[in-house]
Write a structure and sequence with these properties.
Elements lengths: L20 H14 L8 H7 L3 H7 L4 E2 L14 E2 L2
Antiparallel strand pairs: 1-2
């Protein structure tokens, strides 16, 4: 951002930052520090992970998408919203 790049959101490459709770915590810390929304796994996937990813982001006031874009289901392509 110090280079003048307009950052619109955080999106972890290949979702690595959402694979473990400790990495996810860093992901949220960066989002909070720079006041950026984050890309998030679907509700079903975050529920399967079991570490309250959506609840943790919401508690910090971090915006995130409702669901990930699905190449097989274009109707699932939703824009960032506050949950």
């Amino acid at each position: 951002m110090s280079w003048g790049v307009d950052v619109t959101h955080l999106d972890a490459h290949m979702n690595v930052m959402q694979a473990r709770t400790d990495l996810f915590e860093v992901y949220l810390e960066v989002a909070e520090l720079f006041r950026l929304p984050v890309r998030m796994f679907s509700r079903d996937e975050t529920a399967r992970q079991g570490f309250g990813a959506r609840e943790r982001a919401t508690a910090r006031g971090i915006l995130f998408n409702c669901s990930r874009r699905s190449e097989t289901d274009p109707s699932a392509d939703r824009i960032l919203t506050h949950v």
